[in-house]
Design a protein that fits this description.
single chain; 291 residues; 23 strands
């Protein structure tokens, strides 16, 4: 995608159908219904996908011959969210049922909390392992955010009505595993300090045109200096300074529909935006050109 972005316009148009300049390198087919979530393995060339066909499937995407999954987990409900443990040995699975399942990837053996009261009251919408692998976080339609012990699989902390009793849209840990970034349908992004069990900073100014209707993710940039969040009504990108919550200039994303997903590169100033207009756009900060 980077190489395609620096091509002169005439050459780009001439080579638009050329395979070496096409950013799509693999197309995988194996689900019978809509794919709802994707997760890359932490270090193996494996992609996990969850679908409304009640299955989680694993693809070896590095092999040119790969078309179908080499492993499948059958669930009892439609899949909503996935998250790999940093070791790659475990996979969290959230379905339409509020109960969270923890799977051993190699054997597909599943585990749940021994205390039924630990579980959410409504389906989980987002989940994330901490980078140190000790805990994981979940957000739900019930408006609660829960922190779980990664060893005992038990809930150790709950933030009730974390986003004004609105549905939780996304949860994401900082690299030091000490803070949690969340977004909700109240159009506010919040940073939580886990050791003190409190909201440290609220990032406001998005969604001023009306009540948010669809889920949108809040993400850090690669340095964790800034936070990105799409505005539903204007389809622009809101950006805040992560430390002082000062909002930067709005960026037009060029989409004609609601921006459903933003994914930022963990190592470079690049991100992708995906929209209901059936387009995925790749954004990068170009370095100054030299003579």
């Amino acid at each position: 995608m980077l190489a395609k972005g620096v091509l002169p316009f005439e050459m780009d148009m001439r080579d638009q159908q050329s395979s070496e300049n096409h950013p799509v390198i693999r197309t995988l087919y194996d689900h019978a219904d809509e794919i709802t979530t994707l997760q890359f393995h932490p270090f193996e060339p494996i992609l996990a996908s969850g679908s409304r066909d009640y299955t989680v499937k694993f693809f070896e995407y590095a092999k040119p011959s790969t078309k179908k999954a080499f492993r499948c987990i059958q669930e009892a409900e439609q899949i909503r969210a996935l998250s790999f443990h940093p070791s790659g040995d475990w996979l969290l699975v959230a379905t339409q049922h509020p109960t969270i399942r923890l799977y051993r990837v190699e054997t597909s053996q599943s585990f749940i909390s021994s205390n039924p009261k630990d579980q959410h009251k409504l389906p989980v919408t987002s989940m994330d392992w901490s980078p140190n692998g000790r805990i994981f976080a979940t957000g739900s339609k019930d408006g609660q955010i829960k922190i779980w012990d990664g060893v005992s699989n038990k809930c150790i902390q709950t933030f009730i009505d974390a986003h004004s009793a609105q549905e939780i849209c996304s949860v994401a840990f900082t690299r030091n595993s000490k803070y949690l970034l969340t977004s909700g349908k109240d159009s506010v992004v919040r940073l939580w300090e886990l050791s003190a069990a409190r909201c440290l900073i609220s990032y406001t100014g998005a969604g001023s045109a009306g009540k948010q209707e669809k889920r949108a993710q809040a993400v850090f940039n690669h340095t964790e200096d800034f936070i990105f969040y799409p505005d539903e009504k204007t389809t622009t990108l809101c950006c805040w300074d992560a430390r002082n919550a000062q909002r930067q200039n709005l960026l037009s994303l060029g989409h004609n529909g609601f921006v459903k997903t933003i994914v930022h590169s963990p190592i470079a100033p690049h991100f992708m935006s995906c929209s209901d207009d059936f387009r995925a756009r790749f954004w990068c900060k170009k370095s100054p050109q030299t003579d």
